[in-house]
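Re: that backbone. Tokens:
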């Protein structure tokens, strides 16, 4: 579908046509139990966008895969909006733009689809810019986090592995930690969506100091378990801040987490849900978790997808071509 570009900024430099960029961004799982708004893990499930500047005015958008029949095919598409706003911030625009998206990350399931779109847009726009005007890695992280509203998904999408993120004086920052090779993520993805806004709306404004202290201890333990000792993952993924409050919005997810944790597995809500994430300690444990998930879901009459994934080590990838 082709549509006109939105209004151009006066004085903006028009980028030359024929520049092509391909960006591949992994899915992410945030929170991981107690790491609320601060921890995120990159997963081996990927969206790919291809962007080309054209001499023909207007925007052309093509989408295949997840959400192809739901997302807009004009300048309101999240990747397009992100590209145009990032270029505008740098003082640039385009005469025409062609976007092709291949979506594999499910939408509205807690696997970072919106973060992947924003990361795709910022990285694509940054690659289109002249070298002297490009953002560095820290600026890219901040730009993506500001657009998303928080860094817990965009940070691992950019850098891979485990991301520990925070904000200081309005600036988003993140540190990457290498995940232990024995950690195997297994996800159970429902057919229904849950918006992040609705999930956040269920959280209380305050929690008791004792609850916050308990959660802080588990979050610290989780970082150690993910990087050094996966045997501690069941205890490290125990959450006190958000999952119980969100459970009424996703009862099937809550029931599956309870079944997994009762069997000794490290299970948690992925992001805001409703996907369930299990962090298995080794391949045999991952197979056992898959089997338990399938059995539990079948008994409950739930038609979910169960996938064994890997940890994405390197994060988003960018390829640039010049015609």
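Recovered sequence:
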């Amino acid at each position: 579908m082709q549509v006109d570009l939105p209004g151009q900024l006066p004085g903006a430099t028009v980028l030359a046509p024929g520049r092509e960029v391909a960006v591949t961004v992994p899915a992410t799982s945030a929170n991981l139990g107690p790491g609320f708004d601060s921890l995120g893990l990159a997963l081996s499930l990927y969206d790919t966008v291809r962007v080309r500047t054209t001499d023909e005015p207007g925007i052309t958008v093509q989408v295949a895969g997840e959400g192809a029949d739901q997302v807009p095919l004009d300048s309101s598409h999240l990747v397009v909006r992100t590209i145009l706003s990032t270029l505008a911030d740098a003082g640039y625009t385009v005469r025409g733009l062609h976007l092709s998206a291949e979506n594999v990350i499910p939408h509205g399931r807690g696997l970072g689809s919106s973060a992947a779109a924003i990361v795709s847009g910022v990285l694509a726009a940054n690659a289109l810019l002249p070298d002297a005007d490009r953002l560095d890695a820290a600026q890219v992280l901040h730009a993506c986090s500001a657009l998303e509203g928080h860094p817990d998904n965009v940070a691992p999408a950019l850098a891979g592995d485990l991301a520990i993120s925070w904000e200081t004086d309005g600036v988003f920052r993140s540190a990457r930690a290498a995940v232990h090779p024995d950690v195997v993520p297994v996800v159970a993805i429902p057919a229904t969506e849950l918006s992040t806004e609705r999930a956040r709306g269920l959280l209380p404004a305050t929690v008791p100091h004792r609850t916050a202290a308990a959660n802080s201890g588990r979050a610290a333990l989780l970082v150690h378990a993910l990087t050094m000792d996966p045997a501690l993952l069941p205890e490290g993924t125990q959450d006190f801040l958000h999952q119980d409050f969100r459970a009424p919005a996703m009862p099937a997810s809550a029931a599956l987490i309870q079944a997994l944790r009762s069997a000794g597995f490290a299970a948690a809500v992925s992001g805001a849900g409703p996907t369930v994430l299990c962090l298995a300690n080794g391949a045999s444990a991952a197979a056992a978790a898959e089997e338990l998930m399938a059995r539990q879901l079948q008994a409950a009459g739930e038609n979910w997808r169960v996938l064994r994934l890997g940890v994405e080590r390197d994060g988003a990838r960018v390829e640039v071509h010049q015609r």
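Residues 209-227 form the longest helix (19 residues). The mean pLDDT is 94.
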